[in-house]
């Protein structure tokens, strides 16, 4: 470990109830007998406590190492995410190994060990503190997960080289072995267990899973499909902490089950406000409906294991601008040919105030291609994007976002997808844009808004209205009034570059909530008016949109 300071850190032990103190003494004796701790006179000290582990029906010793972690250099995550079970080939044989007490079999460097010291107090201070320090990797130290990952990865590395035809997934102390045949699985499993045990770890033979259905990283992996394990959804979180726990449980299964961002929006919105974890939260009716939809998805949906003989495809689903992506395969030999590999989502909060449909699609394409590169090291054979051929041809010429998203892509782009009920109901072409790229032979409206006088005016008649806000808000208000007044084909000429830019991006766009309520109200109105407008329009920015000079 690398330390940012060698100055000893001392944090006093807090009092413990009599029953927990007795439990602490028993757990300390257990670790002492195993050689995991030794008596210590270290100048470093951190408090300890015990908690009950319901699932395992036993007490657990915890060491509060937050202050110690502050003076340890961060190693960073060695495995930033979980391995995807969908990349396990269909019908290949499976086995899962759970390494027992993994942390406690990884030794600390002798120079580091004394810094992880802790006391065992006595009731009423009847005796001096008994003090110990860890000889093995302690739980609670910020770099312990990374050290554990690194250590176990080194143990498994020779096995991966020998059994190169097998797939070995490793995350923390959970190891999954996957092979095409039973004989190859047996051989690889034996190699894996021997490597783990020769490194000093322990495995429990009675807990090794070896069947057509195994549980791994909170999912059930079957012969062809993957479903979440029995997941308890907290249906009525009352604090911010419980809400975060609920979100974590949902995020775990979202990529497998396709729980869309807009479905979860009412829950995400409840995270706004007081950041104290104990601060109260009350579910709205919309949030209750969101949880009901999540529970339904958990009970009815599934993902699939990969078919190594089929190419990967991608499709953008959803009604504009609420898009979602799906990485899938198409197995025509099956009754249900759709193999769901993973869902791709846009963030809950867009990065820009107004994001156009082609930008949203470009974001999904980039995310999906990056994800497939990570999962399978390849690109898509075909992508189904929600644009007509003529619209796509135009976008490929003029949309920098889509050009960048499709850079180096050599596969097919199509609006023709396989016949499936999911695609039939969810694949929607983006509406044809009403915005013209050239001026129309139609009515032209010159607008002017003055933030200083808080007035907005249009040149078609004497029409003045008080508008509170900046010059941009005043100019935006007058442009909105023009669209409200003239549903026919329309040219808008404005002297505000800001407003011209907003209008050019607003049609069918996704709107980010902004802090200024008046501006958000105006932007919402503009997006609605342009998205549901039937006649074309053209917007143009000039230095001055009108003048009082003759001619």
TrEMBL record:
What EC number(s) does its UniProt record assign?
A: 3.1.26.4
Q: Which residues form the RNase H type-1 domain?
A: 439-551
Q: Where is the Reverse transcriptase domain?
A: 32-221
Query: What GO annotations for molecular function exist for this entry?
Result: RNA stem-loop binding; RNA-directed DNA polymerase activity; RNA-DNA hybrid ribonuclease activity
Q: Which UniProt keywords apply?
A: Endonuclease, Hydrolase, Multifunctional enzyme, Nuclease, Nucleotidyltransferase, RNA-directed DNA polymerase, Transferase, Zinc
- Enumerate the InterPro entries for this protein: DNA/RNA_pol_sf (IPR043502), Rev_trsase/Diguanyl_cyclase (IPR043128), RNaseH-like_sf (IPR012337), RNaseH_domain (IPR002156), RNaseH_sf (IPR036397), RT_dom (IPR000477), RVT_thumb (IPR010661)
Which Gene3D superfamilies does the entry mention?
A: 3.30.70.270, HIV Type 1 Reverse Transcriptase, subunit A, domain 1, Ribonuclease H-like superfamily/Ribonuclease H
Q: Which domain of life is it from?
A: Eukaryota
* The UniProt record lists the keyword Hydrolase: yes
Q: Which family does it belong to?
A: Belongs to the beta type-B retroviral polymerase family. HERV class-II K(HML-2) pol subfamily.
Write the protein's name: ribonuclease H
